[in-house]
Design brief:
Shape: globular
Organism: Hibiscus syriacus (Rose of Sharon)
Low-confidence stretches: none
Structural class: alpha+beta
CATH architecture of the largest domain: Beta Barrel
Keywords: FAD, Flavoprotein
Order of helices and strands: EEHEEHH
CATH topology of the largest domain: Elongation Factor Tu (Ef-tu), domain 3
Number of strands: 4
Largest sheet: 2 strands, antiparallel
InterPro entries: FAD/NAD-bd_sf (IPR036188), MnmG-rel (IPR002218), MnmG_N (IPR040131)
GO biological process, one term: tRNA wobble uridine modification
GO molecular function: flavin adenine dinucleotide binding
Mean pLDDT: 81
CATH class of the largest domain: Mainly Beta
Helix content: 10-25%
Length: 152
């Protein structure tokens, strides 16, 4: 298959040679159990292109059976739903799930500080650049330690 164009922009996302961490175990994967894309990174590098990885720092999953939702602030979805495709045939109506606003405490911060060595970045198992505008909870606790009410 050949493509001809004056310029090509390849937006690879997190699937290209994607990895997830479950505790201390690293697995090749995309998001939510989907497969990673393998081979493209190596082919691009072989052709002389530079590639790099960013750490997305997806928060840990929480078992909803262990959460007291009555003390959390609900954050409902948009009433008018929009989608990424301009083709209306690709729009699938899905049930929106509510998000909930939480805040950290001094106890939360201490728990995180006591367990930094258990995280991939602070434990030294992975070297990655984190997101600039959305730091992980570990980065917030270590960098902005005077604020005890981070929104989560």
């Amino acid at each position: 298959m050949n493509f001809y164009a004056p310029a090509v922009i390849l937006t690879t996302g997190t699937f290209m040679s994607g990895k997830i961490w479950v505790g201390r175990t690293s697995l090749p994967a995309g998001r939510a159990g989907e497969s990673a894309s393998h081979g493209l990174t190596e082919n691009l590098q072989r052709l002389g292109f530079e590639t790099d990885r960013l750490k997305t720092g997806t928060p840990a999953r929480v078992d909803c059976r262990t959460v007291d939702f009555s003390v959390l602030e609900p954050q409902r979805g948009d009433e008018e739903v929009s989608w990424f495709s301009f083709d209306p045939d690709f729009h699938i109506v899905r049930e929106q799930m509510c998000c909930y606003l939480t805040r950290t405490t001094k106890n939360t911060h201490q728990l995180i500080k006591n367990n930094l060595h258990e995280t991939p970045t602070y434990g030294g198992w992975v070297e990655a650049k984190g997101p600039r505008y959305c730091p992980s909870i570990e980065d917030k606790v270590t960098s902005y330690c005077l604020n005890y009410a981070f929104v989560g």
